[in-house]
Write a structure and sequence with these properties.
The chain is of the alpha/beta class. It has helices spanning 13-21, 71-82, 86-96, 120-134, 187-197, 214-221, 233-245, 286-300, 314-318; strands at residues 2-7, 26-32, 35-40, 55-63, 105-113, 139-140, 149-156, 159-165, 204-207, 225-230, 250-254, 267-272, 301-311, 323-329, 338-343. It has 2 domains: 2-165, VC0802-like, CATH 3.30.2130; 187-343, Vaccinia Virus protein VP39 (Rossmann fold). It is built from 9 helices and 15 strands. The strands form 2 sheets. The chain has an 8-stranded mixed sheet. The protein has a 7-stranded mixed sheet with strand order 11-10-9-12-13-15-14. The chain is elongated, with a radius of gyration of 22 Å. The structure holds S-adenosylmethionine. S-adenosylmethionine (SAM) binds next to helix 6.
């Protein structure tokens, strides 16, 4: 058995757990703050297709009693020297479809919650030196792009979770995401919205405020026939570029979401994060703007359609008069918007 843990966006742990559980052979264990644990009987390349998580790690150790004082650096060094990372390297090689070389270069990434009398760079160095001592021929590199393996140390209160990244790159990086516009979603969050929308192949999916097209590309990946638009030419150029890089078929239009050129009751899934607040200003009265978008969303949605909206003002979306199936408070850009699942 191979023990794994995924790191995800706060608030989306249950969505990521559901996506992981849907992969054949994955047994999901526990979900906690930004973490989902899982087991697989054997390493499988399909693990790299997970889209709602930020990244996936082979679980190598859990250290307890890691305090905020500087003495914890020596403790982490001692614990690092005890881990044998070769089994995790073999897992990574099997998932990636290419064995990791015998004497790999490795990077270390460390992050923590709360105040500490040491920095993440100091954690990295303490662990890296010990790993080099324990694994003859392995070389530490501070440049993750040059590393064959990445060792991650997540310190949460007094517990450190230690893993080795399964993929070569963090899963949250999408090669298609070359173009950005203000308010552009992180791809795992877009993928989670698409997951919540439950898109089936061939379904007609709309994002009326598409920005750089992240939701549209993620929806196309699930097999949706996607349609989107934005009044901003720069956003449309970005969406077009991202869709082309992703080789996704996306029907793009320059439009105002308050007057959509889409027939009544013809869309079965809608995924969107309308403009609001600091990132994307809107000229109109924001509440009236939301209400007009809601009127159009309700008009074009087919009976039984599912609508997923990411919003900072859930009360404005609740007033659209659609059935609210669920609401998730998530952490994004240091704030807590809501992912709302609605049905018509
Ligand atoms: C938060 S962004 C969407 C980001 C997009 N989901 C992504 O991940 O790239 C909101 C978008 O709404 C667009 N927008 C502003 N006013 C609009 C309107 N009247 N109709 C449609 N879209 C509008 C903005 O140009 C912006 O690109």
């Amino acid at each position: 058995m191979v023990d794994l843990f995924a790191v995800t966006t706060r608030g989306l742990e249950t969505v990521s757990a559901a996506e992981m559980a849907a992969l054949p052979g994955v047994i999901v264990g526990t979900t906690g703050y930004r973490r989902v644990t899982a087991r697989v009987a054997a390493p499988d390349p399909a693990l790299l297709t997970l889209r709602t998580i930020d990244d996936l790690f082979a679980d190598v150790a859990t250290w307890e009693a890691i305090g905020p004082e500087r003495a914890a650096l020596a403790t982490m060094g001692t614990y690092s020297a005890r881990i044998d990372l070769r089994p995790a390297a073999a897992v990574c090689g099997a998932v990636r479809g290419r064995p990791i070389r015998r004497e790999p270069a490795f990077s270390v990434t460390a992050s923590f919650v709360g105040r500490r009398n040491y920095t993440s760079d100091e954690i990295k160095l303490a662990c890296a030196r010990a790993i080099e001592d324990r694994h003859r021929g392995w070389t530490y590199t501070p440049d993750d792009r040059k590393a064959d393996l990445n060792v991650r140390v997540f310190l949460e209160h007094a517990t450190a979770h230690v893993g080795v990244r399964v993929g070569r790159e963090p899963l949250q990086n999408r090669p298609y995401k070359q173009e950005h516009v203000p308010g552009s979603l992180r791809p795992p969050v877009a993928a989670a919205m698409v997951w919540l929308a439950g898109i089936l192949p061939g379904e007609r999916v709309l994002d009326p405020c598409c920005g750089a097209g992240t939701l549209l590309v993620e929806a196309a990946y699930r097999g949706g026939r996607v349609l989107g638009g934005d009044p901003d030419r720069t956003a449309l150029v970005a969406a077009c570029g991202n869709a082309a890089t992703a080789q996704a078929r996306v029907d793009l239009h320059r439009w105002d979401a308050r007057a959509l050129p889409v027939a009544d009751e013809t869309v079965t899934r809608i995924v969107t994060n309308p403009p609001w607040g600091r990132k994307v200003a809107i000229e109109a009265d924001a509440e009236a703007f939301y209400s007009e978008i809601g009127r159009e969303v309700t008009r074009v949605a087919a009976p039984g359609a599912r609508i997923v909206v990411l919003t900072w003002v859930p009360e404005w979306v609740r007033s659209w008069g659609l059935w609210v199936v669920s609401e998730l408070e998530i952490s994004l850009y240091g704030r807590t918007p809501y992912g709302m699942v609605l049905a018509r």
